[in-house]
């Protein structure tokens, strides 16, 4: 990837654990990824999930504003301190760090933590990035509100724009618990909001840094065209594209060849801990089946072009 101008994002994909020792171990590992990225021209970002360093059940109780026991309050403070430690270390090493998005019933408290960290560490430029899931109908307005709050409080907004990876889980829970489904009713609505989010950020690029975490060709082309219209350089450090390792190489390698900033997410960790992450990506991203079929045809066509066999 380095030879092709593509960066690596080391993604320690342990999540959903419920033991303090596991949270501390995950924090230590993410600190190592920050150290690995420091001063590197091939590792542009670090990343973590808050559920890797905090109990998801506890986060849900905090978001619901339940009354916490003394023990729960202490556990949440420890979780907040882990997030603080990660972001402070990233700031000290000048390494940009993504806080990944999660389920809607804990995303609110994750957002609060992300903006608290941004206010501390994004004073000169974006170090901490929150993640915006545009398959949720309220996310575009949330992004706009986050920008206004950042301007009012004097810090830069960092945003990773994704569509989302919890769709079936979100719909099932909304149906079972009889509340309004937070997911758009159509893919077209999601695509529209995603591209509007690109517009919003690029039009305010002086104060916003973004990474497009997408396997969607049209949105990638849309962003590239918009950058050209606005006179933004292809290698502007405030704009990145990212895809998962092993997926959408046609997007990644062509963007990199054209001079855009591109990185691949590289999930790693213990097999039993990482498999749930990988399975969720396969099961809940309904575009993967069509995308994989298309990539198979692209590989087959390229093999034929090179005259080295067929699949």
Automatic annotation (TrEMBL):
The residue ranges crossing the membrane are none
Q: Which InterPro entries match?
A: FAD-linked_oxidoreductase-like, Proline_DH_dom, Proline_oxidase
**Which residues belong to any copy of the Proline dehydrogenase domain?**
2-293
Where are the annotated coiled coils located? Answer: none
- Name the UniProt key words of this record, in alphabetical order: Oxidoreductase
Q: Which SUPFAM superfamilies match?
A: FAD-linked oxidoreductase
Q: What is this protein called?
A: Proline dehydrogenase
Q: From what organism does this protein derive?
A: Dyadobacter beijingensis
Gene field: putA
